[in-house]
């Protein structure tokens, strides 16, 4: 079922997401543990370069009066000139006693009043100072008077290489791709749901037309009441056992319902005549295939329905009507409905004869394999007789007085309508 395929797809996408997220955090763990050495150094803020690998720059952006005394704004840039990335860094700055931390940005900051140390820590987005890269942050500290730090203490971990950063970016890209695929999947399923709803509405319209049409056919020939529905069910089951696509199974059901549409053009007196037909009368009845083909010519949206009405009386050896088609030149739907039609005719009472028994029907159908019928389809029809499927159909379509002249096809009758989401 399509529901099962959808559920499996969601499960697969969920598993992929779990793997990607796990990979992301694994890379984070690796980056924290893949350490070459610990970096611990003092950096000058007066322009002196105390280290070849790391240096700092500070700008006093402004001072103004505050409740404590003077508010001092500083903007810092830390440069990493080393070949290694510097991860999980921490910076300590000595500030005057009694100072108050007013604000900070680009980092996390905390003032230890007992030691007078201002501790700066990274945020989630600047945890690592890349090789040949830098970070910036700023603070506002109020003190009794203006001051300017001359140095800071930096501690961090040198990463062996930057492959983990690249790997994390790759994982992030794949997570992005996953998100796009998942959104596309949801949009597709929504469109599919809307399509199915539209299809069901279309089917309701088709059913209303078919119910009216088939009631006309049944009214013409009371002896074959229910014949169209039985043929449709037999034909759809054959198609199912042949493993035809779901849409074909549904369309062949429609074709079975409408295969005798042309009988509307046959006079009642001829259609219900109990005696032997004259040549002219037989021609009239045979012409119901051509009439049906003409009636259904506009029904092109239902694949194979018109061709089935036109060719279901063709014979496999080429001796049928109306065009004498032979073998696989006869459309597949018409070959299937032809066998189903013949079975129902033999198993039903007609105005001119009683029905045949099970063994007689099997014998007649097998005798016609290769001459009247496609031998492959005969095999499926005989299996359906032997396994009792045909009896189930007859019970489901059994005539009763209340249903006479009230053929009512519903969505539940049509194969493939309820295929799930």
UniProtKB/TrEMBL annotation:
Record-annotated membrane-spanning stretches: 7-26, 173-192
Keyword Transmembrane part of the UniProt annotation: yes
Sorted UniProt keywords: Membrane, Transmembrane, Transmembrane helix
PROSITE patterns: HD, HD_GYP
Domain HD positions: 224-346
GO biological process, alphabetically ordered: carbohydrate metabolic process
GO MF entries: hydrolase activity, hydrolyzing O-glycosyl compounds; polysaccharide binding
Record-linked CDD domains: HDc
Domain HD-GYP: 202-397
UniProt key word Lyase: no
Listed name of the protein: Cellulose binding domain-containing protein
Species of the source: Butyrivibrio hungatei DSM 14810
UniProt lineage: Bacteria, Bacillati, Bacillota, Clostridia, Lachnospirales
């Amino acid at each position: 079922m399509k529901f099962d395929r959808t559920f499996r797809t969601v499960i697969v996408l969920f598993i992929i997401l779990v793997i990607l997220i796990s990979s992301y955090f694994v890379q984070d763990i690796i980056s924290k543990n893949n350490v070459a050495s610990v970096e611990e150094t003092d950096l000058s803020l007066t322009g002196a370069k105390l280290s070849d690998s790391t240096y700092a720059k500070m700008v006093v952006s402004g001072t103004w009066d505050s409740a404590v005394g003077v508010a001092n704004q500083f903007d810092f840039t830390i440069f990493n000139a080393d070949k290694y990335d510097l991860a999980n860094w921490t910076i300590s700055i000595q500030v005057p006693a009694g100072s108050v931390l007013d604000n900070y940005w680009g980092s996390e900051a905390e003032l230890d009043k007992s030691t007078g140390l201002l501790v700066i820590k990274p945020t989630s987005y600047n945890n690592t100072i890349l090789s040949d890269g830098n970070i910036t942050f700023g603070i506002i500290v109020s003190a009794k008077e203006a001051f300017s730090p001359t140095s800071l203490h930096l501690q961090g971990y040198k990463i062996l290489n930057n492959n983990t950063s690249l790997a994390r970016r790759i994982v992030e890209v794949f997570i992005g791709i996953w998100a796009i695929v998942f959104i596309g999947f949801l949009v597709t399923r929504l469109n599919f749901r809307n399509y199915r709803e539209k299809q069901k509405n279309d089917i309701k319209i088709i059913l209303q037309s078919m119910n009216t049409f088939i009631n006309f056919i049944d009214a013409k020939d009371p002896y074959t009441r229910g014949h169209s529905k039985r043929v449709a069910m037999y034909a759809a089951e054959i198609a199912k056992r042949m493993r035809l696509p779901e849409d074909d199974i549904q369309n062949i059901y429609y074709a079975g319902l409408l295969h005798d549409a042309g009988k509307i053009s046959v006079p009642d007196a001829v259609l219900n005549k109990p005696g032997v037909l004259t040549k002219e009368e037989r021609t009239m009845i045979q012409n119901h295939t051509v009439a049906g083909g003409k009636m259904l010519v506009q029904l092109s949206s239902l694949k194979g329905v018109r061709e089935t009405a036109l060719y279901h009386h063709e014979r496999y050896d080429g001796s049928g009507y109306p065009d004498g088609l032979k073998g696989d030149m006869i459309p597949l739907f018409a070959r299937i409905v032809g066998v189903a039609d013949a079975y129902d005719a033999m198993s039903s009472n007609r105005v001119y004869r009683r029905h045949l028994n099970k063994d007689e029907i099997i014998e007649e159908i097998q005798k016609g394999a290769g001459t009247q019928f496609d031998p492959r389809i005969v095999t499926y029809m005989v299996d359906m007789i032997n396994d009792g499927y045909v009896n189930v159909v007859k019970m489901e379509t059994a005539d009763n007085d209340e249903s006479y002249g009230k053929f009512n096809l519903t969505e539940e009758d049509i194969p493939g309508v309820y295929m799930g989401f």
